[in-house]
TrEMBL record, chain C:
<keyword id="KW-1278">Translocase</keyword>
<dbReference type="GO" id="GO:0042773">
    <property type="term" value="P:ATP synthesis coupled electron transport"/>
</dbReference>
<dbReference type="InterPro" id="IPR001133">
    <property type="entry name" value="NADH_UbQ_OxRdtase_chain4L/K"/>
</dbReference>
<feature type="transmembrane region" description="Helical">
    <location>
        <begin position="60"/>
        <end position="83"/>
    </location>
</feature>
<protein>
    <recommendedName>
        <fullName>NADH-quinone oxidoreductase subunit K</fullName>
        <ecNumber>7.1.1.-</ecNumber>
    </recommendedName>
</protein>
<keyword id="KW-0874">Quinone</keyword>
<comment type="subunit">
    <text>NDH-1 is composed of 14 different subunits. Subunits NuoA, H, J, K, L, M, N constitute the membrane sector of the complex.</text>
</comment>
<keyword id="KW-0520">NAD</keyword>
<keyword id="KW-0813">Transport</keyword>
<keyword id="KW-0812">Transmembrane</keyword>
<feature type="transmembrane region" description="Helical">
    <location>
        <begin position="6"/>
        <end position="23"/>
    </location>
</feature>
<dbReference type="GO" id="GO:0048038">
    <property type="term" value="F:quinone binding"/>
</dbReference>
<dbReference type="InterPro" id="IPR039428">
    <property type="entry name" value="NUOK/Mnh_C1-like"/>
</dbReference>
<dbReference type="GO" id="GO:0030964">
    <property type="term" value="C:NADH dehydrogenase complex"/>
</dbReference>
<keyword id="KW-1003">Cell membrane</keyword>
<feature type="transmembrane region" description="Helical">
    <location>
        <begin position="28"/>
        <end position="48"/>
    </location>
</feature>
<dbReference type="GO" id="GO:0005886">
    <property type="term" value="C:plasma membrane"/>
</dbReference>
Length: 639, 530, 99
């Protein structure tokens, strides 16, 4: 059975290779091949899942060692996989949602002449992401980690003819690289501390390492997680990443890749459990991002960017939960899974809306779409209810658990974190209601003129909103189904907790308030959020051109000036630095050498003058020289 | 004595060079095929060397030894260790690609018929360089090594100065002046380095009484050959200076951007991927082997210089406007990593550095040759003259991207393995240095992606609109390189198995052992293995 | 007569020759001055030979004469060919060898 693990990765990898090297003759069939191979991977995942359920809770881990990847004295990296409950959860999420999004893309990318390549990249992503979650050591995880970064780069920049897309892709890769630096330093630290970086041996030896070392490793892992999961301070790429085609945003920048940071932290639970300081930083990062993303999400008029802010914020929840330690690990993953459903569904819905609106992304130019796109409306609506935590839906359960866990952390810390998560729930309700109202309710506000932010495809035409084809709506329906029922399914009988507990461990904590109180408070926040949104966007008509807004709104529109800060400090500063270094290289480093050459040349120019061609002057120098020699000889004699 | 395989491996390209040069000018194409044939024959011999080499056996294998100048104790001594084997393999592997990629680079120009371009000379010189590089990797006699280390400059000088980049040819006299400036600069830098090394070589003879690497190393290790501390340090510096110029290490690097910028792309590959490797190879073999104590003494300074190379090279690369100069500065950054790995003096660092030499050769060859194809299409080296190439020539753009990704050490491609080993090896002994070097991976991503974005993406430029995609010959050049990059990235074991024993020998030369991890988990590892 | 006087004479002749080489322009005169210097040396050699009482100096004087003869042959040929091309025997006109 363990031999199937490699096949999980091999299937989409094969797809990527065939589609990318296959050339034009695969243009007609390539997307089917890509979808099929993603589905094969999901099928294998289900088989392995069934097999895993058939075994006892302690006997569920499968390993497969293919070969030694990098064998050097004292340094062993294996090409080895490990499939436990945590990996299994991700495998099913990645291949499942991945397959759905492949199906969706068949319709969404129908008119793109480079559709074959798009599917190649998608398959590449699925393969790399599976490698990431199946690796049994950190270096192989790093392989997958950068692999998804590459796929993300290629897909964000898929419409490369748009400079903004190319820039966004580059930015995403670079910011991620900063995070990757953290991961590689973490691996190096593990190597010098434990002599290995395979999961088993490292986690086994954690008890013997000093807390300082563990804290350092933990913080470096957190840096990596921040990059991949768009957490403050490395969050700036996610908003721009929305330049990619919408299925990409759904799969990579909502459901799977951006959650890799959460996976990394939960996977490294043993390290973090031994480093309370690192955990504290993790929770702080999670809490800050939670609010940051939520605030940004409130102000964006671009539907995808609003959703991106929301993604950031939700991942903030997960990171916060993961930072809580054993109290939160399980709920972080649970929220991750339910978020995978509803956020992917929301993005696909947004894609469907854009598909019907000539790729218009400005929500102020939507309005009243519920009549034109009923399926999209219903599925998007269910996703909306799930994310704001409407009782009974997925988000309700998973988010509620995180808020409870935050309070259960205890002490002042617990109160602050709990408060932040509660506040976040309220803001979530606000911005999602805003998206919902702007898009599907109210008057229709679309105009014949094409917006400057949209692609040139539909310039000058009045949009004719229409429902999307079956290949797009069916995945949306399935995801909506997941958004509604997954949470309840996981929560009944604490199924999810029992499933993951053997891997991540669990402790109940000591909540200062009862679960009912927390739920009630959440409901109040939810109602307040929805109410304010209704008052602002539901009751009165929405202007097509965004009003100037308060200082906070303007700041949030500009991602709280974080990008401007980056631009001034990093981009400008970097430009000055490189320019001056180029100058230094040319005039100083090279100049010293050229200067030496020039002075030697100058000296020889002087000496050349002595060679005037007159026999007499040569004779004078000869006589002079002889005279000096003789004089010197005589002098030496005398002395 | 058995069949002199090493001599033959070096002699075949030399003979090929003479025969190629002798082909009459009218039969240009024959000369090209002849050169390609000889380069492939050399490759076959190099493969044979690798097959005959036993990784677990003696340190130097396939040895040959003959008296040469008995009065000075100079012997014709050849022998290869694992490091030599892989580098001979790299050289022999890259030359056919260089020849195939430069197939039309030396054709007579229709535009300026005044200029006489000896086509067959171009290929003969390339083979000559190959022969000299191979024998440098084989020589275990310091004097023999020195001769070919220096002699290499002559054909390289003519390749740089005589066969410039077509992107600038025929435009004006300025291009010719630039080219000859670059060639002279290359020559002068390396001659000065060589001169200082010559003094050190003579000094070594005075101290040791012979030139045999094996004898001196053995005597040093056994303690029978004492050198005064200062003598050893001076001799070390003499050798190191020459190698640091060749490698090149900051601040001795400025000849490389000129040389790579002005020469044709295949010659640029020859410089950076093949010839420069002799410098880093010689640091590993001669500096560490002959002067272990002085090497340790100089390590802090060298590490700092290597770090500067890494960061500085990458930053200056970001600011370049010329594609080829950008690649040159990127190479300077990478050479910093190689030198870092060598002088970190850990098994991982040195294995990584050796792998890095091979992988950097492959990745730079891929990136530079594709860049050369790109430049030959548009006739300009300036990044700003391109844009949107991806749309018109997707295969070209794709291969360029893969070359770029290899340059930024993406996992799955060969350079990642070596770069990570170097970083880990450095970190294990010098954590701060390791962390600063890690910044290099971010900067590598920056210059590569900026280059890709500016040339390949965005709106299609008017001049680029009719650009043809890669031709069959060009695909045949790039595809095997990419396959190798991926193959060695996923399964580097083929190389590490050859390299590891040699690294252990070097480690014992310098009497260093790897730092031990704080927490021993060996036992648990053992359990897992079972 | 005291042989030292011959040495004084030789020195005087040599000085005259040297001065002539340095200040005159005509190639023929120059040439004669060089000969004068050579012969001054010869005189010194012979004088030394006499003073030391062996024949070494005289033998070297013969060598010098042979060299001088050869020099005259080659030098005069050069001067003649120079005069043919340049219509002047001035050495200052023949400064083409300068860098």
């Amino acid at each position: 059975m363990e031999n199937l693990i490699a096949l999980l990765i091999a299937a989409p990898l094969l797809g990527a290779v065939v589609l990318l090297c296959g050339g034009r003759r695969l243009d007609k069939t390539g997307h089917w091949l890509g979808t099929l191979l993603a589905a094969v991977s999901f099928g294998i995942g289900v088989v392995l899942f069934a097999d895993m359920l058939g075994r006892g809770a302690d006997d569920r881990t499968l390993t497969q060692n293919l070969y030694t990847w990098i064998p050097v004295e004292g340094f062993q990296a294996d090409m080895a996989f490990q499939l436990d409950q945590l990996s299994m959860t991700f495998v099913l999420l990645i291949s499942g949602v991945g397959t759905l999004i492949h199906v969706y893309s068949i319709g969404y990318m129908e008119h793109d002449e480079r559709r074959r390549r798009f599917f190649g990249y998608l398959n590449l992503f699925v393969a790399a992401m599976l490698l990431l979650v199946l690796a049994d050591n950190y270096l192989l995880l790093y392989f997958g980690w950068e692999g998804v970064g590459l796929a993300s780069y290629l897909l964000i920049g898929f419409w490369q003819h748009k400079p903004s897309a190319a820039t966004a892709a580059k930015k995403a890769f670079l910011v991620n690289r900063v995070g990757d630096m953290g991961l590689s330093i973490a691996i190096m630290l593990m190597f010098t501390t434990f002599g290995t970086f395979a999961f088993g041996p490292v986690f086994g030896a954690v008890g013997e390492a000093s807390e300082g070392k563990l804290t350092a490793i933990g913080l470096m892992l957190l840096l990596a997680a921040c990059g991949k999961s768009a957490q403050v301070p490395l969050q700036s790429w996610l908003g721009d990443a929305m330049e990619g085609p919408t299925p990409v945003s759904a799969l990579i920048h909502a459901a799977t890749m951006v959650t890799a940071g959460v996976y990394l932290i939960v996977r490294s639970a043993a390290v973090f459990n031994g480093a309370p300081d690192a955990q504290l930083v993790v929770t702080v990062v999670g809490a800050v991002t939670l609010l940051f993303g939520a605030i940004v999400g409130c102000a964006k008029d671009d539907i995808k960017k609003a959703l991106a802010g929301s993604t950031m914020s939700q991942i903030g929840y997960m990171i916060l939960a993961a930072g809580l330690g054993p109290i939160g690990y399980v709920f972080a993953i649970m929220h991750l899974v339910t978020h995978g459903f509803f956020k992917a569904g929301l993005f696909l819905g947004a894609g469907s809306v854009m598909h019907g609106m000539n790729d218009e992304v400005d929500m102020r130019k939507y309005g009243g779409l519920r009549k034109y796109m009923p399926v999209t409306f219903v599925t998007f609506g269910l996703g909306y209810l799930a994310i704001i935590g409407f009782p009974g839906l997925s988000g309700f359960f998973s988010k509620d658990m995180i808020i409870e866990a935050a309070f259960a952390k205890g002490g002042t810390e617990g109160w602050i974190l709990g408060g932040v998560t509660l506040l976040g729930a309220g803001i979530t309700a606000f911005y999602m209601t805003r998206v919902m109202l702007l898009t599907f309710f109210g008057e229709k506000r679309w105009q014949p003129t094409a917006s400057d932010s949209g692609s040139a495809a539909g310039s000058g035409h009045e949009p004719h909103p229409h429902e999307s084809p079956k290949s797009m709506t069916v995945p949306m329906v399935i995801l909506a189904f997941g958004s509604v029922f997954a949470g309840a399914f996981f929560e009944i009988g604490e199924r999810f907790l029992k499933w993951l507990e053997p891997v991540t461990g669990y402790s109940h904590g000591n909540p200062p308030v009862s679960a009912m109180t927390v739920t009630a408070a959440t409901m109040v926040m939810l109602l307040v959020g929805v109410g304010i949104a209704w008052a602002m966007y539901g009751k009165r008509p929405v202007p097509v051109v965004a009003p100037r807004g308060s200082f906070l709104t303007r700041a949030a529109r500009r991602d709280l000036y974080q990008d401007d800060f980056n631009h001034v400090v990093l981009v400008r500063g970097g430009e000055h630095l490189t320019r001056s270094l180029v100058y230094v290289d040319h005039s100083l480093v090279d100049g010293v050498v050229n200067g030496t050459a020039a002075s030697v040349g100058g000296l020889s120019g002087r000496l050349r003058k002595l060679q005037n061609g007159y026999a007499r002057s040569y004779a004078v120098s000869m006589f002079g020289g002889t005279a000096i020699l003789i004089a010197a000889t005589l002098l030496m004699r005398a002395v | 004595m058995n069949f002199p395989l090493l001599t033959v491996t070096a002699a075949v390209p030399a003979v090929g060079a003479i025969l190629t040069a002798a082909v009459p000018a009218a039969r240009r194409t024959a000369a090209k095929w002849l050169a390609l044939f000889f380069s492939l024959a050399t490759l076959a011999l190099a493969v044979l060397v690798a097959v005959r080499f036993e990784p677990g056996g003696d340190r130097y294998q396939l040895t040959e030894s003959r008296a040469w100048i008995p009065d000075f104790g100079v012997r014709y001594e050849l022998g290869v260790d694992g490091i030599g084997v892989v580098l001979i393999g790299l050289t022999a592997l890259l030359i056919p690609f260089v020849i195939a990629a430069g197939w039309h680079d030396a054709d007579p120009l229709e535009t300026s018929s005044k200029r006489w371009r000896p086509t067959q000379g171009f290929f003969a010189l390339i083979l000559m360089v190959e022969a000299m590089v191979i024998i440098s990797f084989e020589a275990t006699d310091v004097f023999l090594f020195y001769i070919f280390f220096e002699a290499m400059l002559i054909p390289m000088y003519f390749l740089i100065g005589g066969f410039g980049d077509r992107a600038h040819l025929g435009s004006d006299e300025n291009a010719a002046a630039q080219r000859s400036y670059a060639a002279v600069k290359f020559l002068l830098y390396n001659l000065v380095g060589g001169l200082i090394m010559l003094a050190a070589v003579i000094g070594l003879y005075v101290v040791a009484g012979n030139f045999s690497l094996q004898e001196i190393t053995a005597a040093r290790a056994a303690g029978t050959l004492d050198m005064a501390t200062n003598t050893e340090r001076l001799l070390f510096l003499g050798f190191f200076f020459a190698f640091a110029v060749k490698a090149p290490l900051w601040p001795l690097h400025t000849w490389l951007p000129n040389a790579m910028g002005e020469s044709t792309a295949p010659v640029a590959v020859l410089i950076t991927a093949v010839v420069d490797k002799v410098g880093t190879f010689a640091m590993l073999r001669f500096c560490l082997g002959l002067f272990p104590d002085a090497s340790k003494w100089a390590t802090p300074v060298i590490l700092v210089l290597a770090l500067i190379s890494i960061v500085y090279g990458a930053l200056v690369a970001v600011g370049q406007r010329d594609i080829k100069r950008l690649v040159a500065y990127a190479s300077i950054s990478h050479f910093g990593f190689i030198i870092l790995g060598i002088f970190a003096m850990t098994s991982q660092g040195q294995s990584g550095a050796t792998l890095y030499m091979v992988n950097h050769g492959l990745s730079t060859a891929a990136l530079m040759l594709v860049a050369g194809f790109l430049i030959s299409r548009r006739g300009s080296r300036l990044i700003a003259d391109y844009g949107g190439v991806q749309k018109v020539a997707p295969v070209l753009a794709g291969t360029f991207l893969i070359g770029g990704l290899a340059t930024l050490s993406l996992p799955g491609l060969a350079p990642f393995v070596s770069e990570f080993l170097v970083l880990v090896g450095t970190f294990a002994r010098y954590p701060v240095v390791g962390i600063v070097a890690t910044v290099g991976i971010v900067l590598a991503a920056l210059y590569t992606l900026v280059l890709y974005q500016r040339t390949m993406t965005g709106p299609v430029k008017e001049e680029v609109r009719t650009m043809p995609d890669l031709r069959l010959r060009e695909v045949l050049v790039v595809a095997p390189l990419i396959a190798l990059l991926i193959g060695l990235g996923v399964y580097p074991k083929v190389l590490t198995d050859i390299v590891n024993p040699a690294v252990e020998h070097t480690m014992s030369d310098v009497k260093q052992t790897d730092p031990k991890p704080e927490v021993a988990v060996e036992a648990k590892n053992g359990e897992e293995a079972k | 007569m005291n042989p030292v006087n011959y040495l004084y004479l030789a020195a005087l002749l040599f000085t005259i020759g040297a001065t002539g080489v340095l200040i005159r322009k005509n190639a023929i005169v120059l040439f004669m001055c060089v000969e004068l210097m050579l012969n001054a040396c010869n005189l010194a050699f012979v004088a030394f030979s006499r003073m030391h009482g062996n024949l070494d100096g005289q033998i070297i004087a013969f060598f010098t004469m042979v060299v001088a003869a050869a020099e005259v042959v080659v030098g005069l040929a050069i001067i003649v060919s120079l005069f043919r091309t340049r219509h002047s025997a001035s050495v200052d006109d023949a400064s083409l060898m300068k860098l």
